[in-house]
Amino acid sequence: MTGKKILFIDSAHPILQAELERDGFQCDNFPGYSRAEYERIISAYIGVIIRSKIKLDRDFLSMARNLKFIARVGAGMENIDTDYAIKQGIACLNAPEGNRDAVGEQAVGMLLTLLNKLLLADREVRKGIWEREKNRGVELGGKTVGIIGYGNTGGAFARKLSGFDVQVLAYDKYKTDFSDAYVQQSTMEALYKRCDVVSLHVPLTEETHYLVDDAFIRRFQKPFYLINTSRGTVVHTTDLVANLKQGKVLGACLDVLEYEGLSFENLDSEHLPETFLELVNRQNVVLSPHIAGWTVESNYKLAMTIVKKIRALKI
Fold this sequence. Notes:
Largest sheet: 7 strands, parallel
Number of helices: 12
Strand order of the largest sheet: 8-7-6-9-10-11-12
Strand content: 15-25%
CATH topology of the largest domain: Rossmann fold
Number of domains: 2
Shape: globular
Structural class: alpha/beta
CATH superfamily of the largest domain: NAD(P)-binding Rossmann-like Domain
Distance between the termini: 16 Å
Number of strands: 12
Helix content: 25-40%
CATH architecture of the largest domain: 3-Layer(aba) Sandwich
């Protein structure tokens, strides 16, 4: 007997479980379970709440005989076989609306940190070093910013830039007619020609895997700053480091790295290459541990977005 049972494979803001229980669902949590243990019980559930703990692939979903929905408390769906799920009548929900503002704010924050050499200056002042000329920054105003992928986070980033006196161009292969007060729809050719800053806001797919490689970088007519708050393997790190050394990329803001584990909760520390060591030792690189979108406010908003989408299913 499945009833209205939802399996929480990952943790989420407590409001998510509280609201679902108020709606009459039984919510079960087994945080120490392995994938095999989840497989043994999944047939008893009509819903799954997940972030990135395990892959919900065809093999797993074939055991989920009563599943009506998968809800990812986040944006990216690359760890879920959505094509197979939809064919099986399983609704696939995510919540990019919940953390888009947080991603947009962090992208701006990382960029300003990089342009103004704040990490270096902070470290020096803490050591009693007072170097002003060495830490002279570069203004964002007057620059052309290119956004690749104009969905929830790309749009939020554009809105956050609206007070910085920049021109914002955006390219999205799958969207048209989206120019507005914050952005000008553009072509990749225009981005290659005009951009001083390039920010990535694409999902991870076969098409975007290693999108940013040496050939991509060399198409840009001007040296540029790169921001990646999407997925680590959208950027070929070895090629990026080579172009940072050559000055083709002036600096990089990376919230995500291709060396992350499946769950995004840690680095794959046993397989970190020499390139990683070169990256982390560069002063023109700002790094964070996949926390763009990971704020106090977004934690709540992600949960409530999922609640609303589950309610809309009218189960």
